[in-house]
Design a protein that fits this description.
Elements (H helix, E strand, L loop, with lengths): L2 H10 L4 H12 L4 E2 H8 L3 H13 L3 E6 L13 E6 L13 H15 L2 H15 L4 H7 L4 E4 L2 E4 L5 H6 L1 H15 L5 E4 L8 E4 L8
Antiparallel strand pairs: 1-3, 2-3, 4-5, 5-7, 6-7
Helix pairs in contact: 2-3, 2-4, 3-4, 6-9
Length: 212
């Protein structure tokens, strides 16, 4: 099976609306998700959620872990719960085939070799400012960052430039930060604050932002 065929098979699994909703919920969650939480979010029974979640695992879109949620160990602690998280792999397909990733890697290599970091950051910041986002959280969500509030900071669960950032971390992360800074409304700020997974940028809003 070709890589395109594998990607098409994986994406075809998302054709079911319930399955698509479950995937989006799990993918956006900052931590592992239980079957019960996924079922409640999707408005389906636990059995239905379990069926669709495992189909997503079989397609390579989600992965599982087992952990006792009570924190207890030993006899009487109960069985570990099956938890779900987004899988690390990427699935992309273009019909007809295109190779934008190859071009982006070549351009990034040229920019890095030429030392054009500041020019790239200026362009990214200008593009963010041109977007004129009134609601930074929604703007970041629309751009695939999967934002969530954590202890007063807006964390970004997903890096839309993950593959490029792994090859050219200083170049791409600097561009990413500048673009987000340009996007933010008055009273908001962004800075490098990397976590083990997700985007390397964290955002802070005006006082009271993110409070429930």
């Amino acid at each position: 099976m070709s890589s395109d065929d594998a990607a098409l098979d994986a994406l075809a699994v998302l054709g079911d609306p319930v399955r698509r909703g479950l995937y989006r919920y799990v993918a956006a969650a900052p931590g592992d998700v239980t079957r019960d939480a996924a079922a409640e979010a999707a408005g389906v029974t636990r059995a239905v959620a379990a069926f669709h979640l495992d189909k997503l695992v079989d397609a390579g879109l989600l992965e599982t872990a087992f952990r006792r949620l009570s924190g207890r160990t030993g006899p009487g602690a109960g069985r570990p719960s099956k938890l779900y998280r987004r899988a690390d792999g990427e699935h992309a397909v273009s019909v007809p085939p295109r190779s934008y990733d190859t071009v982006s890697q070549l351009l990034a290599e040229v920019v890095e070799r030429a030392g054009l970091d500041h020019e790239l950051q200026a362009a990214a910041r200008a593009a963010g400012e041109a977007a004129g986002a009134a609601d930074p959280v929604e703007a970041l969500r629309e751009r695939g960052y999967e934002p969530y509030w954590d202890c007063g900071k807006l964390r970004l669960h997903n890096c839309p430039f993950h593959a490029l950032a792994e090859r050219f971390p200083a170049l791409v992360c600097g561009m990413n930060l500048a673009g987000i800074q340009g996007l933010l409304a008055e009273g908001w700020s962004a800075a490098m604050d990397p976590l083990p997974k997700g985007c390397c940028v964290a955002v802070e809003g005006p006082e009271g932002a993110g409070e429930v």
